């Protein structure tokens, strides 16, 4: 059964593309027609692609892996923060920190810095600082929270990326492709779909359109998480004593590797890494 229907997509304005003169020829297979100089997206193909992407999302969640949502455009920020946060998936809605994927250990260090500041506030260290030092640290903590707060629990690289507007988030897409991370994306008629693994041809400017697609993806993730939980509960206690549960093995392995990478200090920090760390701060 399809997760959406023609009328629902039509009401949300998913079919509205960009002006004909702004189109990307690679989007031709997903364009139904042109009306008043504006391209109209083929909603039958959109519906099929949504079902395909949702099925893949469900399997990712069921296996215990994470999907990182990226949406820094104004009309998508609040939608992503609310809906994606409800399924406990990481998201970026402020600014994409260069190297978040390709230089992940440095990003993790910035997140640990945020945790260390929180620890200072609880163990009494904060009380021994001057008023000026407290103000500087508080501002630093607020900046880190704004940029990295939503990925604080992401201990390893995500298994997939979901992007709203591939043209705006081209750096994130490039990093994901460089690392072989599959990319899901809402792709409008002015964007290039060739580097996207799961293309969802849709209006990526209208809030209603974004909300509809994000909501369907989050429902699929929630289903996957619920099925994973149900499977874990049906395993008899002690059945896998002394070894990892099959569903947890990959997640545990990656978390251990991530921790080892963070604890390993390089003798000389590469210049690119230093710049990335400074940018995050």
Q: How would you summarize the topology of this molecule?
A:
Elements: H1 6-11, E1 16-19, E2 31-35, E3 38-41, H2 43-62, E4 67-70, H3 74-85, E5 91-92, H4 104-123, H5 131-148, E6 160-164, H6 170-179, E7 183-187, E8 198-201, H7 207-234, H8 249-263, H9 271-280
Parallel strand pairs: 4-5, 4-6, 6-7, 7-8
Antiparallel strand pairs: 1-3, 2-3
- Helix and strand run: HEEEHEHEHHEHEEHHH
Overall structural domain count: 2
| Main CATH class of the largest domain | Alpha Beta
CATH architecture of the largest domain: 3-Layer(aba) Sandwich
Rg from C-alpha positions? 21 Å
How would you describe the oligomerization state of the chains in this entry?
single chain
The shape, in one word, is: globular
Q: Report the β-strand fraction as a percent range.
A: 5-15%
Biggest sheet, spatial arrangement of strands: 5-4-6-7-8
The overall pLDDT average reads: 84
Largest sheet: 5 strands, parallel
Q: What name does the CATH topology of the largest domain carry?
A: Rossmann fold
What proportion of the residues is helical, as a percent range?
40-55%
């Amino acid at each position: 059964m399809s997760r959406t229907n023609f009328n629902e997509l039509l009401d949300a304005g998913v079919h509205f593309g960009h002006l004909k003169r702004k189109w990307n020829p690679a989007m031709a297979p997903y364009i139904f027609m042109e009306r008043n100089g504006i391209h109209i997206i083929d909603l039958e193909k959109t519906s099929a692609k949504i079902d395909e992407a949702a099925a893949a999302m469900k399997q990712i969640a069921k296996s215990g892996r994470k999907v990182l949502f990226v949406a820094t455009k104004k009309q998508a920020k609040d939608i992503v923060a609310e809906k994606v946060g409800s399924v406990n998936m990481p998201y970026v809605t402020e600014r994409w920190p260069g190297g978040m994927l390709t230089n992940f250990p440095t990003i993790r260090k910035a997140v640990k810095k945020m945790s260390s500041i929180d620890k200072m506030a609880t163990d009494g260290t904060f009380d021994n600082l001057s008023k000026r030092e407290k103000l500087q640290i508080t501002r630093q903590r607020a900046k880190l929270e704004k940029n990295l707060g939503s990925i604080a629990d992401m201990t390893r690289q995500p298994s997939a990326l979901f992007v709203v507007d591939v043209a705006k988030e081209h750096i994130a897409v490039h990093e994901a492709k460089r690392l072989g991370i599959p990319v899901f994306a809402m792709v409008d008629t002015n964007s290039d779909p060739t580097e996207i693994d799961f293309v969802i041809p849709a209006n990526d400017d209208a809030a209603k359109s974004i909300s509809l697609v994000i909501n369907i993806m989050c429902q699929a993730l929630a289903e996957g998480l619920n099925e994973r939980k149900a499977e874990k509960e049906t395993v008899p206690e002690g059945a896998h004593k002394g070894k990892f549960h099959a569903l947890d093995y990959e997640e545990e392995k990656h978390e251990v590797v991530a921790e080892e990478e963070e604890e390993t200090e390089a003798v000389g920090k590469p210049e690119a890494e230093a710049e990335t760390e400074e940018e995050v701060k």
